[in-house]
Amino acid sequence: MLSPLIYEKEESNNIPKQKNHLTLAISEAKCIGNIAFPMIFTGLILYSRSIISMIFLGHLGELSLAGGSLAIGFANITEWWWYEIMILLCGILINPQSTVASMGILIQTTSLIYIFPSSLSFGVSTRVGNELGANRPNRAKLAAIIGLCTSFILGISSLFFAILVRNIWAKMFTQDQEIMKLTAMVLPIIGLCELGNCPQTTGCGVLRGTARPKLGANVNLGCFYLVGMPIAIWLSFFMGFDFKGLWLGLLAAQGSCAVTMMLIILVKTNWEDQARRAKELINGDCHDNQDEKIEDYLESLDYHKLENSNV
After folding, report:
1. Which residues constitute the domain of residue 238?
2. Residue 108: helix, strand or coil by DSSP?
3. Which is deepest, 3, 30, 89, 225, by most CB within 10 Å?
4. Which PANTHER family match (predicted)?
5. String of DSSP letters for 151-179
């Protein structure tokens, strides 16, 4: 009667190893997607508020669109310092009114595209953190690799999107020919930026999942403000690239940031060590919580003793 169970076990061991890896990869992609897709939907709903405002401002006139661009920059100053600085630099270019207005349209475009890698980043960080906390470093590494591969697909999709809509995208916001020309010129550069931005954003999610957000922040700070910003200023004001030079500086920043993230995650990360570190962090939190509970309990005992003595 036991023989069928033995045969089933033997058959299960004969499953090709490659198929197991493929199944794991598909399963991991589904887990990440279950977290990322609701966030994408939420981000698109929130994004629709600002883009509708920009569309109406653009049809009021070029000056209104430029003013709206400045307002968006200051509203996002804590999160998008790079774009705020770029808007300020646009004010000293050859045609400041048109470049600032075009910058507003392009910031809205990058905000739309950013929803997808940002949601993927949060999904990957959750999966990596969960697997490390469960002491499964190989599964955490798989989640990171699947997330990074998906981010490259998002980057390529963003590039094609930017190229396809470059001549019609600005028409939603304005009928000014100069603004439309500037926007069409820069959109392909934004598409190229997304080839670096999507892996870079996902890489930040991996670093958050391994409890190393400070490392990701340092990489971003160095690449954007020590690499990208000097290149943007040099190309715009000293090499004659004007408005395009600012975005080429962003391209340099995104490229250097993505390469650095890839090296840190794929080459420098020891997943076994990260799993041990996660265990230490969890145990440390548990001990801290336990100590707090003991202290609270002792304080409550002292309080009751004091009450009884008063009675």
Report:
1. 14-269
2. helix
3. 89
4. MULTIDRUG RESISTANCE PROTEIN
5. HHHHHHHHHHHHHHTTTTGGGGT---HHH
Neighbour-count burial for 107-127, b at 16+ CB within 10 Å, e otherwise: bbbbbbbbbbbbbbbbbbbbb
> Side-chain half-sphere of 60: how many Cα atoms within 13 Å?
13
223, 260 contact by CB (below 8 A):
yes
Domain total in the chain: 2
> Which element (helix H / strand E) includes 101?
helix 96-133
Q: How many CB atoms lie within 10 A of CB 13?
A: 7
257 has pLDDT over 80: yes
| pLDDT tens digits for range 71-84 | 444 434 434 677 77
Phi-psi region of 86 (alpha: psi -120 to 50; beta: other; left: phi over 0): alpha
pLDDT at 268 over 70: yes
Question: Of 9-13, 58-62, 103-107, which gets the smallest average pLDDT?
Answer: 9-13
Task: Flag the least confident range among 68-82, 91-105, 161-175.
Answer: 68-82
Q: Which two tokens stand for residue 244?
A: 């395009």
- Co-location of 160 and 135 in the same domain: yes
Tell me, yes or no, whether 169 and 281 share the same domain. no
Predicted confidence (pLDDT) at residue 69 exceeds the cutoff of 70 = no
Same domain, yes or no: 171 and 264: yes
Residues 96 and 122 in one domain: yes
Res 6 pLDDT > 50: no
